[in-house]
Amino acid sequence: MSVLSQTRLTQVREVMAATGADALVVTHLPNIFYLSGFSGSNAILLVLGDVIHLFTDGRYTIQAHEEAPLARVHIVRTPLAEACGEFVRSRSSRKRMHVAFEAASLNVDAWARLKKAARRGIAWKPTTELIEGIREVKSAEELDVMRSSARLASEVIAEASDFVRPGVAELEVAAEIDYRLRHKGASGPSFETIVASGPRSALPHARPTEKRLQKNELVVLDLGAILRHYCSDLTRTVFLGRAPARIRRWYKAVEQAQEAAHDALRAGVTAGSVDRAARRVLNQHGLGPYFVHGTGHGLGIEIHERPRVGRSQKQEIRAGNVVTLEPGIYVEGVGGIRIEDEVAVHARGTEVLTTAPHGLLEL
Length: 363
Fold this sequence. Notes:
The chain has 363 residues and is an alpha+beta fold. Helix content is 35%, strand content 23%. It has 2 domains: 3-135, Creatine Amidinohydrolase, Chain A, domain 1 (3-Layer(aba) Sandwich), CATH 3.40.350.10; 140-362, CATH 3.90.230.10. Helix 3 (61-67) links the parallel strand 3 and strand 4 (72-75). Helix 4 (80-91) runs parallel beside helix 5 and helix 9 (245-264) packs antiparallel against helix 10 (271-284). The longest helix is centred in the last third of the chain and has 20 residues, at 245-264.
């Protein structure tokens, strides 16, 4: 565990103390990685006193010791929740012990095993986004990785003219994007790459299909790279052919909406005010009803993190946040336009991490 991880654990213990918890059971894998460095697919982490205990199975014996050298690794053959509960019982005293757990990621079966194995004398405290609240403020080291991840994704989307053309299937375009991400060093895409063409581009989260791209239609490309465990997220919209005046007007409106959101984004404002800035511009162009999702979201180890940039969000934007700004419009039967960039918030100003060219790309 690095000095950076020790700092994270200090922050977790401070939050635990504020909630009155003597121990914390961590079951959300991204949070386990954040605190320990362990990246396996089966683990429970117990924060207890000055020690973190990592419970996993025999498949990860070597990996756990390599990735989490300062954690006490427990290789178990029983269900992890049961083993963790038994360990909690062995460390509890006559004094009632308060143990916090992650309510959103502990399933019913594991919860039952944990409680049964721990037996009596435990006061269980459900928590929500306790570690996520710490994760949303990125360190300088995290920002360096995220810059590299954003640049990698930007390089791929800047190459779109090499493989986005009439006659190619959406699935083929998506496969080419994923190949290029890995070829440039990503461990994989941040999410299932979106390639949506023609009327299907009006589906904000369309999955690529066998549909072939055609001339005179919109194509939305939404992609991201996982680089050293950190995600990037970037969207550009292409028109195959010479775009008609209506499409150009719509694109300009979305571009202006993103610019307005960027102008509003700074430390100390609410996330909702950033969303409203983008929405106001689209409303002025008569396109407000076609903007059907929030303006953006935080990202980091996961593709969707805090803060959420939506109209009702009252959370304050803080220095160290990294968010997407991605206004879009979606017109049924015609298509969609979305422009997305990744922006880091600093104490004084902001920094756009994605470097792909702006402007409607006509191919």
